[in-house]
Prior knowledge:
Arc Repressor Mutant, subunit A; mainly alpha; Rna Polymerase Sigma Factor, Chain: A; single chain
Amino acid sequence: MEELVARAREGSSQAFEKLVEAHQHEVFGLALRLVVDRELAADVSQEAFIRAWRALPKFRGDAAFSTWLHRITVNVAWTLKKRKARHAALALNESLEVADRRQGSDPVRTSENTELKARLAAALNDLNPAQRSVVVLKDVYGWTHNEVAEWLGITVTAAKVRLHRGHLRLRELLHEEER
């Protein structure tokens, strides 16, 4: 992967094409989680790759290429979402299915998790957008508190508080559903 990145940084469109192929599903999945709308997620994905291509010569390699690409995707998602002023719920089921396919999941495990995914998606949809964003970036993508805070333009403390409150609210929602 590092060789592809190096060749792409030197201007090889073929190398960049391979990077796009390798990362398109995760970029789309992240975009879909953030903007909720499939068409807008496709636009976000396309714009993220365009911006990555333009910024690639400046990529220093301080972070993994995928982390850098995720950060670009988050920025594009928020920019396009604000521009279009869309407020909708998180389509977690679809994005988790994309992640399952990408990781070659076991069909039996997938079917057993269908109900849990539906419950979790519904609970995430009930979170406010600020909490939902932090929960998705931290719990689904494994970003650090610092990364989440930096890319959402909030303090690390605010990111931790939103994550904590999001977790509490998810527990409440999932517990209410069991009754």
